[in-house]
Amino acid sequence: MLAKKLVTAQKRGETRALCLGLGMVTCSMMMYFFIGITIVPFYTKSVWTIETVCKVLKASIKEKVLCPDVEGSEEEDAFPYPCLQVWVNLTASGQEVMLYHSEDTVERNPKCSYVPDKLENSKEVKARIEKIASNFKKYQIFPCYYDPGGTQTNVILSRLYPTKGLLFLFLWPTLMFTGGCLIIVLVKISQYFSALSAWQ
């Protein structure tokens, strides 16, 4: 009777462990799918792939513009902000080009180097942009990214999804997938040895 209870408890534990392993594998596959359809396209679409060194030539704040300044944008989403323009010398080619904060900045407003988030306090936005401009004047040499194909003549300060960041995103589902497969393998090995000992 006791042996029968132990066997039943063992089978229940194996079933739960197997469900846990399958659940981990399923979740990891869903995470792979989510990353693949949301983040990977933005990474592959970006043409600013080569890192180089940029030197600031000019950083000036122009008159206020509306954000976003792109076609198809809704008027209620637009808000005025000072337009910061930063021109740099691209070390790789020696050209004078405009610097943008990221790929998103080029799409939102190609006239300005930095597009702030929508804030109700215009003074806070102005102070932030003035601080960014002073930082560019203070730290004039810094790494930036350019398009080696030449389709984009401008450069960006940072990529939305760099290679290291993308690999870090894939690390967690990979660990979960590996852990789930390991649990399933261990359960199957346990079941095999249990059946072997019962047969003997």
Automatic annotation (TrEMBL):
It is a multi-pass membrane protein. The chain crosses the membrane at residues 20-43, 166-187. It is found in: Membrane. One of its GO terms (cellular component) is voltage-gated potassium channel complex. Pfam families: CaKB (PF03185). GO terms for biological process: detection of calcium ion. Its main location: membrane. Keywords: Glycoprotein, Ion channel, Ion transport, Membrane, Transmembrane, Transmembrane helix, Transport. It comes from the Eukaryota. GO terms for molecular function: calcium-activated potassium channel activity; potassium channel regulator activity. Belongs to the KCNMB (TC 8.A.14.1) family. KCNMB1 subfamily. PANTHER family: CALCIUM-ACTIVATED POTASSIUM CHANNEL SUBUNIT BETA, CALCIUM-ACTIVATED POTASSIUM CHANNEL SUBUNIT BETA-1. This is KCMB1 protein. It comes from Centropus bengalensis.
